[in-house]
Amino acid sequence: MRILMVDRAGAQSIWSLLDPIAAGATAAGHEVHSCRWDDGRAPFAMPGPAGVQDHPIRVPRAHWPGQVLHQHARFAPAFARLLDRLRPDLVHTNFIVPGGIARWQARRAGARVISTCHEVRGGMSPHLRALGRLTQGAADHIVHVSHHVAASYGAAEAPLWPGTGVPARHLVIRNGLDLAALGQVRPWPRPGARRVLVVAGRMVAAKGQRIALEAFARAAPGLPDLDLELIGDGPDHAALAARAAALGLADRVVFAGWRPRSEVLARMASAAAVLVPSLHEGFGLALAEAMALGRPAIAADIPALRETAGLGQGVRLVPPGRPDALAEALAAPFGLTGLHAGACDISAMVARYLALYAACDARIDR
Question: Does pLDDT of 45 surpass 70?
């Protein structure tokens, strides 16, 4: 079977999930290709696993929401040519950009389509929700990374795959982590005796960096040895930096920018605590990583993060959007976290996707 995986070039977390699946599919004898929507914002090149052929498609940068249409106008004909050249049996899409248009084109080209939904439907912008509604019928199977994501798409009863017989259209396959590799992560060296709170993620309102900053401002006077480190970048960067300066915290708030995934994990491994103050999450990969690393973690008490926290122990959940509640948690002693045995193991995730691929392969007319 010829498989084509599609997502954005800069989506490090999603490719960290797709690459092991691609490696497993290659080992199983499938021919695997990847297509990356490249708008020039990817901070680091992420080569795929051996044997996977990559086909990047360059699109212009979008500086305001309406320009996404211009990006799609550039992507769609190039992707159509790629489909015509490769003639894949199965196309696996992920985030709605570019997954929405990609799954619709793949269906028209006669391929089977699997779409993984990583995001809560209500957390997307209206135009992306509309694109999802218009193209969701093109997918043979829609995989949700948590039961909460499934419920947001009206599929609250979606079963955890694998099941028996022909798989349902809506399924749940939780994200996985390479637990063995995470066990080998060495903490990032921190100068002196300073302790650091780490928040990792794209700087947009939904990720809650502003909430973390306001909470830190309240707790900082009583925690003079503690700093806040924001890893990532995005449209809110300038406003966050200005707010940190206005709060008199410019020397205690570190803007690390985008870092390679290995470095992000090392920085998390040396954190006094990992904060996940998101207002919307589909799964909470950063929270699961913090738990796998055994670090203290404080997360917003939203459904997806509550679901992920339930895969282990020790996570402190606080009311979402409440800097005062987060500040109170920062002032209390931090406790270590952990994952339950077998939870979030990448091998289980890969096996479930390969089983789904095989089920699709059995129904392909050749």
Answer: no
Confidence of residue 67 (pLDDT cuts 50, 70, 90): confident
**Given this model, what pLDDT does residue 124 score?**
87
Q: For the whole model, what pTM was predicted?
A: 0.90
Q: What is the pLDDT of residue 11?
A: 86
Three-state SS letters, the chain: CEEEEEEECCCHHHHHHHHHHHHHHHHCCCEEEEEEEECCCCCCCCCCCCCCEECCEECCCCCCCCHHHHHHHHHHHHHHHHHHHHCCCEEEECCHHHHHHHHHHHHHCCCEEEEEECCCHHHCCHHHHHHHHHHHHHCCEEEECCHHHHHHCCCCCCCECCCCCCCCCEEECCCCECHHHHCCCCCCCCCCCCEEEEEECCCCHHHCHHHHHHHHHHHHHHCCCEEEEEEECCCCHHHHHHHHHHCCCCCCEEEEECCCHHHHHHHHHCCCEEEECCCCCCCCHHHHHHHHCCCCEEEECCHHHHHHHCCEECCEEECCCCHHHHHHHHHCCCCCCEECCCCCEHHHHHHHHHHHHHHHHHCCCC
What are the residues whose beta carbons fall under 8 Å from the beta carbon of 101, sequence distance 6 or more? 72, 75, 76, 79, 131, 135
For 30, the token pair is 């499938």
